[in-house]
Amino acid sequence: MELVDRFLSTGTEASFADLFPVVYPQIVRYFSFRGFPNELSEEMAQDVMVAVFRKASSLRDRALFRPWLFKVAQNTMRQHLRRVQNDPNLRPLEDPSVRDREAANQIPQNEGFLDLIRILNEDERQVMILRYIEDLGYEEISAVLGIPLGTVKWKIFDSKSRICAHIRQHQMEHA
Fold first, then answer.
1. Is the CATH code 3.40.5.10 the one for domain 1-94+101-107?
2. What are phi and psi for residue 50, nearest 5 degrees?
């Protein structure tokens, strides 16, 4: 991506300002699809973008920008969850149902996909969201999650198989 290359080459505020409106919504969506309220998703996405601006110069391989970006987002989410868990004054994050988020108009699209992947385990859902909503490649998912490429491929294959079987069973029950 040209904007990423320009930012990584120059590291200037101007190049970051060009990159921000492209990357920021993706990161907000990353948090929203994990059940965080929109305001908190935006706040955490801002934290991610600050980290990107400050630490992008340490990135050795420009081709790994997207996996690195989502790894920063994942770490930001983990830090938030640890703070919530360790602070008795904060309420723990509740995992709202897709219908609750739809009613709150936080996810105007992809709710059908999110309904389908509810049958999967959390780690499988995460792989599927990174692949089909965030549009990351298999290698990028492997880098973000720190799991072998073969595991990513298997999780996607197995998840799709289980979803298809679930759809077929549901169709047979309602036929």
1. no
2. -65, -45
